[in-house]
Design goal:
disordered N terminus, mainly beta, single chain, ten-stranded antiparallel barrel
Length: about 220
C-alpha cells in the first residue's frame, strides 16, 4: 500500500506542468506571413530546421528564406539561418532566437572615362546588406486554443560600416485554429535609429500593429 502511494504521487508530480511529450527529435519548420498595417507591407518567411529535444527544452538550428511585398512588388529577398531555444511545456511557453541574413545586393557606381569596352562607369561598391536579429518572447497557451504573451526583438542592418538598428516590443494574442495553423495580432512600439553618420543617435518611435498567420510542420 505504501509503495502504491509513492508510485501515484510520483506520477502526479511528473504530470503536473510536465513538458509536452508529443515533441520529438526531427525536422520542423514553418511558413509565416505578417502584414504591418502602418507600412502596408507583408513579410513572408519560410523556415526549416531540426528539433533537438531535451525534454523541457528544444534547441533548433534552422535555415530561413524571406521576402517582403510592398508598393505592389516583392523585394529581392533574404536568406540565412540561426538558432532557436524554446520550452516544450503544455501551457507556459518561452523562447529565444538569433539569426543572420544576407539581404539586398547594392551597387554604387561612379563616373569613369569611357574605356575600350564601351563602359562609361565603374562600380565603387558592390556588396550585400547583412541583417542580424535577436528575439525573445514568453506567454501562456490556454487549453481552448487562445494564447497571449509578449515579445521583443533587436535588429541590425549593416552595409559597408553603416548600421541601422531597430527595436520592437509587442503584446501578442492569437488562436490555434488547428494543430498547425495559428492566427495572431501584435500591437506595440518600434524604435528605429537613423542609418546616417551625422544623425547623432537620433531615433524615431512608432506604433506598430501586425496581423500574422503561421503554418507549422
Amino acid at each position: 500500500m505504501k509503495k502504491s502511494a509513492i508510485v501515484v504521487a510520483t506520477l502526479l508530480a511528473l504530470s503536473a506542468g510536465a513538458a509536452n511529450a508529443d515533441v520529438l527529435n526531427g525536422f520542423t519548420g514553418k511558413v509565416e506571413a505578417e502584414h504591418t498595417t502602418q507600412d502596408k507591407s507583408t513579410n513572408l518567411e519560410a523556415r526549416v530546421g531540426y528539433d533537438f529535444n531535451f525534454g523541457a527544452v528544444s534547441v533548433i538550428p534552422f535555415a530561413s528564406v524571406e521576402t517582403q511585398y510592398e508598393d505592389k512588388h516583392f523585394n529581392d529577398g533574404a536568406f540565412g539561418g540561426g538558432l532557436r531555444v524554446q520550452t516544450n511545456f503544455d501551457n507556459f511557453y518561452a523562447y529565444a532566437e538569433g539569426r543572420a541574413m544576407r539581404k539586398d545586393r547594392i551597387k554604387v557606381y561612379g563616373a569613369a572615362p569611357m574605356d575600350i569596352t564601351g563602359n562609361g562607369t565603374e562600380i565603387l561598391i558592390d556588396s550585400t546588406v547583412k541583417e542580424y536579429r535577436a528575439e525573445v518572447g514568453t506567454g501562456y497557451q490556454f487549453d481552448n486554443g487562445f494564447f497571449a504573451g509578449v515579445e521583443a526583438s533587436y535588429t541590425r542592418d549593416r552595409f559597408e560600416g553603416i548600421n541601422s538598428d531597430t527595436r520592437n516590443v509587442f503584446a501578442v494574442a492569437g488562436y490555434d485554429f488547428i494543430d498547425n495553423l495559428t492566427g495572431y495580432i501584435k500591437l506595440g512600439r518600434e524604435e528605429a535609429d537613423q542609418a546616417v553618420p551625422y544623425a547623432n543617435g537620433a531615433t524615431d518611435w512608432e506604433t506598430k500593429s501586425v496581423i500574422g498567420l503561421t503554418y507549422r510542420f
